[in-house]
Amino acid sequence: MYRTWVSVLTQLDFCYMFEYVCDKEGKNLHLECNAELDIKGIDAIVNDIRFQIAKISQRKEARIAGGKKAVVTIPYAVFNIEEFERRCESPRVKDKSGYQKALDAFHKYFIRLQNGFVVFNENYLKAIIDEIDSIECVKKVVEKISLELAGE
Q: Which domain of life is it from (predicted)?
């Protein structure tokens, strides 16, 4: 039940932040999200681009990804921030750069609330909205963000 609820809240946060950034940037884009789309595995549609929000996790079983070519999957980071910070400081970890890059990307694209819940930062949605006229460009932006969150 918790996972479903968090998924719904994350989807709502994506849609809210998308609308907020569009309004702030003066862009008149139509975002559609509803139960019928959700049943089809689509969290939102803008300009015929279908979006699905999917969490990135350090759990091995959660990292196995299936891809739908017609849908842009928006990575949503669920990291143990304290563990990444600990590894960045640990003398036993030889290559700290990947952890530090992932942390930097996390803080660039997400905000972690005091209760631990993670919400989208404006930077994430602005990068997508700036390229919304082309699904290929949106996919490139999302791939870049994904790589940053992976510490690359």
A: Bacteria
